[in-house]
Amino acid sequence: MKRLSPVTRLALLTATIAPLGANPARARVSLPVSPSVWQAVRSLPVPPVVHYPTHRVHSPLTPAVVKRIRGIRSLSARRNAHAFIKVGDSHTDTRFTLACFASRRFDPATLASRPGLDETRRWFKRRLRTGRTSFDRKSLATRSGHSAGWALSGGNHSPLIREIARVNPQFALVAFGTNDMQRHGSFARSLAPFLKKMEALLRELEVRGIIPIVVGLPPRLDSTQAQRWAKVYNDALRRLAASQQIPFVDMHRALRHAPGFGLAPDGIHGSAYVWKRLQ
Questions:
Q1: 0.85 cut: is pTM over it?
Q2: Per-residue DSSP letters for the chain?
């Protein structure tokens, strides 16, 4: 059986929950990134855009995507390959998102139909220097009610940079969009500014040798218009990820068969966020 790369496995684990280097050195991420590093990122190979298929939860790991990922990883040899961070809004603003994979009560048989995924779960279950695992850590780069621009606010003291300094991750799950949808008065007017901020956020991760995994928007059931535009934003994120040749997880599609689409009674927040509020 062909072995899956860590980035593929992490993407698979991220979507699986919906329907259901040792001793790394500290990265000096608090310092401004030098012009030479920015130039290195700009020179990374980005082949002509190949649109990711809409019928798949996970974007394909083509040779071009693999080459792009390896190029990003080559920008920093200090990253902890056993660590990822969550960057996002209320859908990730709780350690309960993905936390079941770190629980002692987790039954590996749950992943029996997905060969290799329990190996991945154990790979990322290692304790971080913060005391928790990547699965159940409460990220500094997530906050309910906030947008993609918030993660970068504050320059070298931004929520994103502080979280990177704490964890020193190799990967980042990036999940914004729900709060961005009406930030500029309407769903239509908010789309372009949102994508611009997301592009800046992804580049900020790449320049530090961190591989972004873009997570699409879940469905919205609070209104017919919001439901329609959530899919538009999700599709736009897929195109953005394809343009950068980085992985994309289509949560909108992954949640289609989940009970209640994986949402709380308000039709906006994820069920994991409601669980957090009940604690």
A1: no
A2: -PPPPHHHHHHHHHHHTTT---SPPPP-TTSPPPHHHHHHHHTS--PSP-PPPTT-SB----HHHHHHHHHHHTT-S--EEEEEEEEESTTTSSTTTTGGGG-TT--GGGGTTSTTHHHHHHHHTSPPTTSS-TTT---TTB-TT--HHHHHTTGGGSHHHHHHHHH-EEEEEEE--TTTTTTTSSHHHHHHHHHHHHHHHHHHHHTTT-EEEEEPPPP--S-HHHHHHHHHHHHHHHHHHHHHT--EE-HHHHTTTSGGGGB-TTSSSBHHHHHHHH-
